[in-house]
DUF2207 domain-containing protein (Streptococcus pneumoniae), 233 residues
Amino acid sequence: MKKTFFVLLFSLFCILPLSVFAVDFKIRSYQGDLYIHADNTAEFREKVVYSFDEDFNGQLVGLGRSGKMPKGFEIDPSPKVQVWKNASAIENVNSEVIEESEGYTVKVYNPGQEGDTVEVVITWQLKNLLFLYDDIAELNWQPLTDSSEPIENFEFRVTGFNGAEKLFFHTGKLFTEGKVEKTGGDYRVHLKNLPRQRGVELHAYWLRKDFETALDQGLKGNRLAEFEKIEES
């Protein structure tokens, strides 16, 4: 059976779609963990577990950087890459980061056979992820734009030095939204059987005073009323 690369592309901002090249596979789960710091930097860790029904050569995981983003937004081009195959850690993972016009692609050289279960964890460092207005700091983010296959279990957690005031999760019209749970200042979103080609969006805000040490972006005026208007519409 011909081997090929399994391509899994997650995007910050609706730039790099999730797709696959001629491989019979299932996405068992996707877990995203976003930790936001007081200086408006963040760590984004995504864990993907999938099983293959064909032989394969490796995985590609992409992260976009284009679109309407805060001033000074950056992705560190040297993410941490970890891989497990059939519950065994792969030591000295062979991977490379390729800079594209609209983001970065991590190419993981991880061949395998039909029946394998693979877990890939990519940890990114981000700068200036939130929009900093006079009254609030806003997260308006699409961590996943679409998938070539359904995701059986989707989970996303937003944590940090200080909890968001409110967080909303959207998957588009005509589809049941995921369950949003709040524990202290942390948020967890869980959804079963996310259909293929379905994007997800996170919309949240913090009080601006929580980010006093963050670099000013030059945004003037208040934003909270508009934020609430968007979520009420």
Q: What stands out?
A: The radius of gyration is 18 Å. Confidence is low (pLDDT under 50) at residues 1-6, 9-22. The helical segments are 224-232.
